[in-house]
Amino acid sequence: MARTRFVGDAGLTARMTLVMFLLGALFVGLIAILMGVFWSSPGIVVLIGVIGLGVVWFQWYKSDTVAMKAMRAREVSREQAPELHDMIERLCALADMPKPRVGVADTDLPNAFATGRSPQRSVVVVTTGILRRLEAEELEGVLAHELSHVAHRDVLVMTAASSAGIVAGMLTRGAQYGAFFGGGRRDNNNNGLPVWLVVLVVSLVTYAISFLLLKLLSRYRELSADRAGAYLTMKPHALASALQKITGEINQIPQRDLRQASAMNAFFIAPAVQGVSLRTLTSTHPTLEQRLEQLAKIQAELGRPAA
């Protein structure tokens, strides 16, 4: 965790370490299986390995640029958004952390996210929709939540960890392509299953495991960010109010706009989905009820007189 006054979270650190270890092992296992499948064509294995490492590096190095382009966000200067810059500067001074770049996405979807490979290369982005809907105290709670992601470095872990799923997805599409074009070729002297089927099964299993691991980490990191942000501002009620407003307003956003932003759901403060589907296994976030319950407990704790 970066040097900061945000509340630390040993549980988050342990989960991030475990997820990175398991996904690293999964990636190595994927390459090892592919080496066995393509033992007679080592060039293919080398190519797959290079592509996989390239994806990991690109995800790490360009995570802020990719995320901002996905949301059509732009970096804004102090002259363009003085109040937003002032609020982030106050929170960064309070948290004793470097100030990230500030971005705005021109969309009515009320949301916010943070991304970047390090606290020095991070950016906090808010949408015009959230700026229009939240009071200053509520927006401060949202920004404290996002800054805690930067301080905890969980954004970097989420970005890097998603690489295994991306590589597996690429292999799945490649295997499907092979099924249509020359898919009858079999491994090792034409015995056993077709090569495309082996690759398809292995890549699908890899994708499924990485998908579930990322979702489990994503849920916990959101609770951790809520907790850290609430303790920093000492106003958990403001963040709770913001979460209720955001969730309620998202239900009014057209489905087309929600689908366009769905790729960023794991990074948003609240996922761009409608209804109560957040209880499902594939949810990127804990339920609103869980988040409000935790914030209510913090509010009660802060309200108690000191012993």
Summary?
The protein has twelve helices and four strands; from the N terminus they run αααβαβββαααααααα. The chain is mainly alpha-helical and about 300 residues long.
Molecular structure report:
65% of the residues lie in helices and 6% in strands. Strand 3 and strand 4 form a beta hairpin. The chain has twelve helices and four strands. The protein folds into two domains: 10-64 and 155-212, no CATH class; 74-153 and 217-303, Zincin-like (2-Layer Sandwich), CATH 3.30.2010.10. Helix 6 crosses helix 9 (195-233).
> Could you state the CATH homologous superfamily of the largest domain?
Metalloproteases ("zincins"), catalytic domain
Poorly predicted regions are: 179-184, 277-281
Structural class from helices and strands?
mainly alpha
Helix-strand string:
HHHEHEEEHHHHHHHH
Strand order of the largest sheet: 1-2-4-3
CATH topology name of the largest domain: Zincin-like
Strand fraction band?
A: 5-15%
CATH level-1 class of the largest domain: Alpha Beta
Shape: elongated
CATH architectural label of the largest domain: 2-Layer Sandwich
Largest sheet: 4 strands, mixed
Number of helices: 12
Mean pLDDT: 82
Radius of gyration: 22 Å
Helicity, in percent?
55-70%
Distance between the termini: 31 Å
How many structural domains? 2
Q: Would you count the extended β strands for me?
A: 4
